TrEMBL record:
Protein name: 3-deoxy-D-manno-octulosonate 8-phosphate phosphatase KdsC
Classification of source organism: Bacteria, Pseudomonadati, Pseudomonadota, Gammaproteobacteria, Oceanospirillales
The species this protein was found in: Thalassolituus maritimus
Gene3D superfamilies in alphabetical order: HAD superfamily/HAD-like
Enzymatic class: hydrolase
Role description: Catalyzes the hydrolysis of 3-deoxy-D-manno-octulosonate 8-phosphate (KDO 8-P) to 3-deoxy-D-manno-octulosonate (KDO) and inorganic phosphate.
Amino acid sequence: MVHLPNAIKEKARAIRLVVFDVDGVLTDGTLSYSASGEEVKHFNVKDGVGIKLLNVFDIDTAIISAKDSAPLAKRAADLGINRFFPGTKEKWPVLANLMDELMVDPSEVCYVGDDVIDLKVMTRVGLAISPADGFWMVRDRADLITEASGGKGVAREVADIVLGSRMPLEEAYIKAMLPEFESLNDAKDK
């Protein structure tokens, strides 16, 4: 992990909710269709470990995406993300309602987005992050730009930043090495 300025570490330490856009963040933004017209998405398995670790350490996660698809719903379910808002064109009202529900202040929210639709949210939260290949306007307004490009481990890098602001990462990753790690989120949701 890259050395972070103290101001970013302080912002990361305050985070209680991490919200991800999907296309261009959890995927590389490529749209693929099967011969029957079904949408196919490619997700990075490393991101899944990061998202699950955030949840294990009581940092809520959510997906707010302008698009909706069966592969996206499946991935959110596989990761235990039950705060899933697909087909959302106006993201701020959805996030504002979620913050009210969770009793989270905007300063306690990290939002990871890559395109102009994300700017209304990114300018209102405590920590705004763009992937390395995010649209230039988004990168210019982000508090932090990841080393990873969209779909190439952005969520894992974000998890490392948030968790690393609280503890040595080796300590966090001990949980990921446990045989029951894959089922930890399932037990937490019950």
